Amino acid sequence: MTSVAVRPIKVTRAALWRMRLQLSWRGLKTNWALFTENPIGLIGLGIIVFFGLLALLHPILMHTVWSPNIYDPVSGFDMQVPMSPSPPSPRHLLGTDPLGRDVLSQLMYSTRYEFGLGILSALITVIIATTVGAFSAYYGGIIDMFFMRLADLVIMVPLIPILIVLAAFNPVGMIELGIVIGLLSGFGGTTIVIKSQGLAVKVKPYIEAARIAGGGDFHIIFSHMVPNLMPLSLLYMMFVVTSAIFSEAVLSFFGLTQIKMSWGLMINTTQVFGYLLRFDTWYLLIPASLAITLLCAAFYFVGRALDEVVNPRLRRR
Amino acid sequence: MTNKEVLVDIKHLSKLFPMGSGMFQRSKVFVYAVSDVNLQIRKGESVGLVGESGCGKTTTGKLLTRLLNPTSGSVDFQTENGPVDIASLRGKAMKKFRRHVQMIFQDPYESMNPRLTINDTVAEPLNVQGIGSLVEREDRVVQLLESVGLTPASSFLFRYPHELSGGQRQRVAIARALVVGPDFVVADEPTSMLDVSVRTSVMQLMEDLGEKFGVTYLYITHDIAVARYMSDRLAVMYLGKIVELGDTEEVLHHPLHPYTKALLSAVPVPDPLHQREPVVIKGQVSKPINPLPRCRFYERCPLADKFCETHDHPPLEDQGAGHYVACYHI
Question: Which ipTM value was assigned to this complex?
Fold first, then answer.
């Protein structure tokens, strides 16, 4: 071995990984700069952060200002309120629901579960869709055929009716709901999109270069295809969050879930007690509906803005 | 030259691509991308493979690196344990074989994973093959980057391909191909995507490194000037067949096959008063889809006659001094 120039870093596994982390941090900053160019993305992110703060604030308030007996989102009741539902007052900023529970507390309590549901289903979707998409794009043939026909099948059957049928057999909680939405979306449309991108990646010369280097199928799939599919997966993650929150709301509105409190359930309570289509009790319907709409829209906006980062053709410059 | 050991011995190599085959029906129509190619590449020489687009040059390169499996024929590669047929290698043996044969790709913008750093790209063959310790691998990467002229290597290690110019990328690709110490490198038009200004320096670099590391090249190109610069021997391909083979200068100065003559007459000459020889071939290059059993060049050949039509494609015949031509009329 001939003389080697001064190494930039001491060569250890850890040092190399630190270097890679630094580089990905730099890449993240560049992408952040691109992301912030788009006001839509920032609005979406702002709304998400706002709801995140709401979710975080709830346990803090419950432990400090709000007495659990009065403000508990499921079992709270305020003796000082003469009649439920009651309109907004300094004591209950968004009023109380027909059972005398604080609407603001319900709203804030539900937020964290909506986030949890969205993230769970999105993660399941992305893991399944990326793996299945990469494998069926790489191998083609019978594997590809099987998963693509399965995807057709899943797309063909609409999500909400399936969930209704499922709820009839089994009590559906937040976690079950997240898993089912994740599975259906992961084996459905998202896979097809990821696979079509995978077909484009598969024919790149660097895949052939990796094969000539001696890399096996798994090496090629996991070190070359998956990293190049990840940006698109991330994008679809956002859209899955939107669809998960929306499906939960619909299902809870029908009263088909075993969830203690959620935005959909708040609307369901309103409807059960006959306050749904009345303007004077707007404080029962509007907060939850607005929260669903805003959070769904926010994730969609972030997805749109990410699309511009991921997809160079959509960039303005 | 002739007494040197044969490194790669290509015997009756063919690759047929089926057309329009469905799930339940086997195709009856084939593209004869490479058909019955015979070529011996000796240790230390570089062979140029020239021809028009779609004549099977790249397919030949991919067959030699086993990116594609041959339909028939064999490629015997000389290793320390005697010759092995590339097509018969499986699993571990195949992986090991990859250390001996590497490839440099045409497009330096596409042949590197955009998400890997230069360090990871060049070190990938070493990592995959599990050669040496981590420190040894890093040293080897730095050594290779410096020998392809990317100095100081430390300023290139942790950059991404998109931060480099085309010439620099192709240098990285060369470093990556040579990092495992191969005996044989298939260079698939490595300079065709480069600026003319950096083309020569990259070619010079490949030649120097070939000598330094003892690498034998198969240089695939459509540019005769590049082939002349890079190769000791020249093989001219037409529709999946080698039609002329010989020492580069001999072939260029005394072309015998009508196709080679036409190809050479198409090379631009930097002289406005130069009288171009009339191009005698007619028509355009076609696809070799189920070709008739006659000379592949029959439709375009100025010398074609009844004999050519009724006889199969002519064999490569020695015209003396290792100059082979496949034509009945020479």
Answer: 0.85
